[in-house]
Amino acid sequence: MAGRPVDHDRRAELLEEVVDYTVEHGFSDLTWRPVAAALGVSTNTLVHRFGSKEQLLVAILGRLRERILEATGELLGEQHDLATAARVAWTRTSAPERAPEFKLFFAVYGRALQAPGQFAGFLDRVVADWMARLCEAQGPDTDPATAHRRATLVIATIRGLLLDLLATGDRDRVQDAAESFLAALESPPG
């Protein structure tokens, strides 16, 4: 006898709630019972919707990546200037209200690096999504190799600055460094 089919709308709603829970509580000790209790559902409901704990983590990673991309992706795609796109990305990602989400992002990123087979989808997309948008922001006339090199520099620098900000809380120092980086992007090369 086959089990009940998964209601994908309800699964999506629960996933949003699970991601919110994980942003608030972290994922290192993520277990079915506390999550189920916080969401007001049974552990069986979560298992039915997500399968194993590993499948739940993969779903959380995917949705977290999507949320981060949604928060900046549309604006990045509208820019045809790398400096403006980088400033938009920095402003959105470094906003104080985004800190819990990005703390989880970096924790998840570390976990994915430790288990690349389990989190291959996350690792494949975590750079590629941003790379595509930042290359697009440079316009169609930019040499593809140059566009990729510049986009890589922006991704690495913004993530490094954001990690520093989250680790130290020294907003003034990190913002000063970010402004220096962003100003260099605005200056013509040479």
TrEMBL record:
Location of the DNA-binding region in this protein: 31-50
Protein name, as recorded: TetR/AcrR family transcriptional regulator
PROSITE patterns in alphabetical order: HTH_TETR_2
PANTHER family: HTH-TYPE TRANSCRIPTIONAL DUAL REGULATOR CECR, HTH-TYPE TRANSCRIPTIONAL REGULATOR RUTR
HTH tetR-type domain: residues covered: 8-68
Originating organism: Amycolatopsis ultiminotia
Alphabetic keyword roster: DNA-binding
InterPro entries assigned: Homeodomain-like_sf (IPR009057), HTH-type_TetR-like_transc_reg (IPR050109), HTH_TetR (IPR001647), Tet_transcr_reg_TetR-rel_C_sf (IPR036271)
